[in-house]
Amino acid sequence: MTAPTTVPTLRSYVAGAWHSPDPAGARPLHDAVTGEEVARLSSAGVDFGAALSYGRGVGGPALRELTFHQRAGLLKALAGHLREHRDELYAVSARTGATLSDSKFDVDGGIGVLLAYASKGRRELPNDTVYVDGAVEPLGRGGTFVGQHVATPLHGVAVQVNAFNFPVWGPLEKLAPAFLAGVPSLVKPASPTAFLTSALVELIIDSGLLPEGSLQFVAGGVGDLFDHLTGQDLVSFTGSAATAATLRTHPTIVRESVRFNAEADSLNMSILGPDVAPGSPEFDLYVSGVVAEMTIKAGQKCTAIRRAFVPEQHVEAVVEAVSARLATTVVGAPDAEGVRMGALASLDQRGEVRRNIAALADAGRIVHGDPGKVDVVGADAERGAFLSPVLLTADPDRAEPHAVEAFGPVSTVMGYSSIPQVVELAARGNGSLAGSVVTADPAVAREIVLGVAPWHGRVLVLNERDAKESTGHGSPLPALVHGGPGRAGGGEEMGGIRGVLHHMQRTAVQADPDTLTAITGRWVRGSQRRETDVHPFRKHLEELRPGDTIVAGPRRVTQEDVEHFAEFTGDTFYAHMDAAAAAANPLFGERVAHGYLVVSLAAGLFVDPDPGPVLANFGVDDLRFLTPVRFGDELTVTLTCKQLTPRDTAGYGEVRWDADVTRQDGESVARYDVLTLVAKKETAS
Ligand code: NDP
């Protein structure tokens, strides 16, 4: 049978071209609200081996030519492009059952991740193609043999298998760190909502913003894709624990040690603290949190609260308050007046959730909602995948509430009697993505957070103090780890730059300092310094080189200097001003100079005072005072250009300098990095 012409068959974008499958035999996808056929889905005819080769051969090299900052710039541009087109995405999103605020969660959330990674890339990564990880490790006594970890992008493809519930955010939160790392992506959406991810990918490819080969898209099954993976490829998976287990043990993944990151369903919990009583602001926050997690995206959130633990004496009050709020939640078509909760993603999914509610009800009691019946506004309750929010209670010692996940608007309230007991109950979920504790008592928060942390990827502590700015229990954030141990998949996504490094290989390089400087582009202590006639502060960004050095001094430090500094700044600490007290100090034995005086005198020595390319000093890093400076000591400073970070979009860049302040006997008294902004020559005239 041929599909009606009005129903598109989704195209894949592989090996540089759109692939249109034969509609015959393609799987129909349905509007979650009306039940109408929306699109057809098939990846028949896609050459998966060729797609991976294309990513490795075309996308990877194109990305690796760019610096982290250039990739960050493209992510920012992409975010701007998608923002301009977000209304189109909202319209398609409504057909997945999402209300407008659900769609914003998905679409704007995804754009937000792109922007967050664009910003982190520029602020936390160098304008280079190699990432220097951690400090130089001395490996020999003489300083001629040192080690340094570096990270470089894997030369494979990041295969990203997504879940149905966030068809825009899901692919974007996986794409952003892979792209920033310099690794091309191959996106596979979940079938039920693939038509929305398809709309997203069409927008991205049509924009022409991303280098060719850096994004490929497979609409439909993955065929023999996994057979072609190598140790340079990665797989990032979101979905059920069962599928994660199948894919993780695929023979090629095992044989090739393919990096496999899973984010699977989990039985997330929220604890009402023992200090919180009905009528308090925290009690209301708890109730609002449970209701929000049940109804946003109709509870189809991997982080949603499935287990609500409350002090035994407050179970009734919590059930009453949550039920009252759920009773006012209008369910229906996303575009109908007053609707607060839309449909599940598909009728199949509703069937699955109903089966799981039945299992939970066997172990407890439904106290709000009817899984078989719901009043629906603006749509047909049976043709659309609508479901009433369902609240249950259960004995916490039953196994089911800790094991059965109803992936919909469903939560179970359970009583507890002590903190050690609730910590133990939380752990029965066998590993979760997100947990929360609502308490105003920091001691309660510490006991619970440290107790549940080994089973959780993220924990929110909510109270009146942070509620206004809190992003809530269920929101994964680009700067924070998203993932969890055990049942939650054992993986980590995002987490800021951690997610970028996941796509890179960390290599320990052992070499002499000069070689290491050449490899990393970052001057390493012990490698050559270059003293020239021109003061380094008179050089523009383009003229500076790592290793450019100025040696200045000596400068004698006198008692008058120290007393002047003490009076002037008000820092009359006894070690500098009180001879008897200083003599009793086991570290000094006599009066010594202020560390800040040493740093200030060093600046006085190395600074070139006239107007020039150095625009500002924006801080110091890693300042350590190593040896006390006594009256009469003579200081010399050696300032060496360590790292240059040009800003593509600014008339200046950052220069990191190594500062080493030494005494007359050569001993270092202070070491630190000085951070300056230096103008580019091209913009100086
Ligand atoms: P699945 O695990 O079945 O699917 C997740 C993704 O894996 C989809 O893209 C799916 O594609 C793909 N997939 C499934 N089987 C294979 C395979 N053999 N090889 C390659 N890819 C495969 O989860 P569902 O989407 O069906 O949801 C089921 C349950 O998972 C939910 O009820 C919920 O409990 C949980 N879930 C968890 C989420 C989370 O974020 N942790 C999110 C969504 C669901 P396709 O759709 O084409 O089969």
TrEMBL record:
Pfam families per record: Aldedh, MaoC_dehydratas
Segments forming domain Aldehyde dehydrogenase: 33-449
Protein name as annotated: Phenylacetic acid degradation protein paaN
NCBIfam families: PaaN-DH, PRK11903.1
Organism: Pseudonocardia dioxanivorans (strain ATCC 55486 / DSM 44775 / JCM 13855 / CB1190)
Family, similarity comment: Belongs to the aldehyde dehydrogenase family.
Ranges of compositional bias, category Gly residues: 483-492
Gene3D superfamilies the UniProt entry points to: Aldehyde Dehydrogenase, Chain A, domain 1, Aldehyde Dehydrogenase, Chain A, domain 2, Hotdog Thioesterase
Presence of the UniProt keyword DNA-binding in the record: no
Signal peptide start-end: none
Ranges for region Disordered: 468-492
UniProt EC number: 1.2.1.3
Keywords from the UniProt entry: Oxidoreductase
Residue ranges occupied by any MaoC-like domain in the UniProt entry: 548-656
A GO MF term: aldehyde dehydrogenase (NAD+) activity
UniProt cross-references to InterPro entries, sorted A to Z: Ald_DH/histidinol_DH, Ald_DH_C, Ald_DH_N, Aldehyde_DH_dom, HotDog_dom_sf, MaoC-like_dom, PaaN-DH
